[in-house]
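S.,

Sequence below, as promised.
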Amino acid sequence: TDLTIIDAHSTGSSLTIEGSLSVRLMGLTLRGGFSDRGGGIHASIFRETNPVTGRIEFYNLMVRGNQALFDGGGIYFAGNVDLVVQGTMITENSALAGGGIYLLSNEQQTKRIVCENSSMISNSATLSGSAVVLNGTDEMNIKDSFVMLNHAETPTAFPAISLSDASYFLGINIQWGTGPSENSGADIFNGALFNE
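The prediction came back faster than expected:
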């Protein structure tokens, strides 16, 4: 079946999610977004329950051809609930940082991010994280996914995945690409507690 298409035609984020709720998105194409943060998806979710419950789930999405002036060309996510990205293609997005995905948290907003059976391909960033920036105290797991052909304007200095010192990263069976399909610059900046 064809995916439902949301095209922002450069008038803002393709999709904005705000509030204190759980969200599940399936089978959407999000394209043509242009905003300060989160060209494709801008998600800001804060729950006040203790313990924090709920999560954001993205299944079988196509996030393509979006742009952010600052963070998260494809997806910008800030909040204190878990994020699950599965079976999703994030491609041809661009930003200053986090061309594909930008994740933001602090000590009060720590969450778990799982990206599985997904692809981050041909995204670009002027600064760090042409594929992903993880900025904060989160735990991120990337499993059985492709991270390749992502481009940083200063490839010798900025990797495809950029991790803050306070975060934790687990990579399982990541296909980084080799030769003509590799990321420009390093694959990952190991500022975090890192396992692969």
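The CA atoms of residues 155 and 185 lie 4 Å apart.

Coffee later?
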